[in-house]
Design goal:
Elements (H helix, E strand, L loop, with lengths): L14 H4 L6 H8 L5 H8 L7 H4 L20 H19 L5 H32 L2
Helix pairs in contact: 5-6
Length: about 130
């Protein structure tokens, strides 16, 4: 095989870099220091993948005992914050491959914007909760 036996696995492309012949996604998370985000990933998966918590937890609902029948604006604060953080992390890592003053400034601006985006998601979530529970 051109890329080795491990390359045929799901995350085999990372096997050599991780020194693991059968890497899993959490191995990649650990190697880049973002394993702390795993609980958020799992929470977002409850309603998509078979899981007992999916019966009790609905990401798009603010009230219990109601079925979600369509799209919802609720429950987007955590996924929104983490998406902004992840995109900033990925983009920052890639553009720093060609370092310059412009890149340093861009990374700083992205960090500021990422924090603002996270705060806005929380504000919208709180407003939605206030509207729902009034």
């Amino acid at each position: 095989m051109r890329y080795g036996k491990a390359f045929g696995g799901t995350y085999g492309w990372a096997a050599e870099a991780l020194g693991n012949p059968n890497p899993k996604f959490f191995h990649i998370e650990q190697s880049v220091g973002v394993e702390r985000l795993r609980p958020f990933f799992k929470m977002a998966s409850y309603n998509v993948h078979a899981n007992p918590k999916g019966v009790l937890f609905r990401l798009g609902l603010l009230t219990k005992g109601v079925l979600l029948a369509g799209p919802s604006n609720a429950g987007l604060a955590d996924p929104g914050q983490n998406t902004a953080f992840s995109l900033t992390l990925i983009t920052s890592s890639l553009i720093q491959l060609c370092p310059s003053l412009d890149v340093i400034i861009a990374v700083k601006i992205m960090n500021v914007l990422s924090k603002e985006i996270g705060q806005m998601f929380v504000q919208v979530h709180r407003a939605l909760e206030a509207e729902t529970y009034q």
